[in-house]
Amino acid sequence: MTRARAPLRNARTRLVLASVVLSTVMTALVLAVVYVTANRTIASETRSVVTAELAGLADEYERLGTLGLMRAIERRSQDAAERDALYLLTDPAGRVLAGNLLRWPPDIEPGSGWVRLELMRAGGDTAVPISAASIRLRGGERLLVGRDASARQQFDRALLQSAGLALLATLALSLLTGWLLTRLVFSRLSEIARTAGDIVSGDLSRRIPLRGTGDELDRMAETLNEMLERIEELVGNLRMTTNSLAHDLRSPLSRLRQRVEALTATDRPESERAAEAARAQAEIDHLLRVFSRLTEISRAEAGLGRDLFEPVELEPLARDVLEFYEPVAQEQGVALTLSGEDARLPGNKALLAQALSNLLENALRYAPDGSTIRVTLGRAGDRVALTVSDSGPGVPEEALPRLSRPFVTLDDSRTEQNSGLGLALVAAIARMHGGSFTARNLDPGFEAQMTLGR
């Protein structure tokens, strides 16, 4: 179990890390999109405002001339609402005529487009970052209009700090969430692994505990438990079959050896040797029938023959089987009846006929003279039910659950004269068709029912 737990821990760690990485990356991408979008929006709005203001000042220059433009710039520079606005008007030689900037930037040519740079404010002692645009006026004057980018840089820093805190919070929450979820999921998987380990150790009765939540893990555990019950049943049948084979075949094989020894004796009359040969042949035929039935059961349990499934009408099939057994029933003074509604389902027609034949043979073996064997077609929930009932002796109640097991024979019971494989084959065929086999005592009589999936 140590080796089984280590991979679970590794898988848990990988799942938590994957959850953390995925959440962090997704959050980082969202924050990056927000950051880029916000910056682009602010830059676009700033550029639109500056471009419009630059065009407006150029119009004032055309209407009022240089002095009118100087007065307009001075008014705007002193407006408290425009304290982030930056203006600069110089003559063609570069001398400052108006504005709140100290001097014209030496590397900027008027009309060179949108620029970002650092300039000294008039009366200031440090350069400030600005975003600006410039033009050359008709008289050779140079005009620059911009915005102080200090507030925007502070906004960028605040946004980046908030993004960092959001990433840290996302990291912590994803770690906690991933740990809680994996603890919930892997605790259930650990229960499954422990149960599987106990089963591997030989305890086939172990089952995965259900928590009653009805979630996917509970439904999976329920399905696995059904599978484990089926495995336990098959292993139990295999053990019982092996033990029964060893026990039940010992006597026929011993008798067969005695008959072969008798055949090799040269001092016995020819008639006795012929009789021994006939009895030996009968023993061999019996053994062949046993092995043939075992093969049929194994094939049905393995689902071999599903490739031959076809739409089967049960009423015509049952009628054909009853007609085949009608002469035998008449000899015994037993009546055979068929009733119920017809049903159509996908199945192996030959195997379904074999199953009904086994049920009829079992009923004919114990039905008293003058009685009736009833074959009924009906519904059992969402499945088709095929029932064979008679008025013969029943079986002990405690033996009913064991009737469908291989080699189960009950002294003085309805399975006394056979090898105990007929009903086992019926149950295997029913399971192959998605159904089940049940038996119960009537008052009086016995009923065997085979339910089939649709």
From TrEMBL:
Q: What is its main location?
A: membrane
Q: Where is each Histidine kinase domain found? A: 244-454
Give the main EC class. transferase
User: Out of the domains of life, which is the source?
Assistant: Bacteria
Recorded hits in Gene3D superfamilies, A to Z, give: 1.10.287.130, 6.10.340.10, Histidine kinase-like ATPase, C-terminal domain
* Residue ranges of every copy of the HAMP domain listed in the record: 183-236
Q: Where in the cell is it found?
A: Membrane
Q: What is its EC number?
A: 2.7.13.3
What GO molecular-function term can you cite, just one?
A: phosphorelay sensor kinase activity
- Coiled coil (UniProt feature): 214-241
- Does the keyword Signal belong to this entry? no
Name of the protein in its database record = histidine kinase
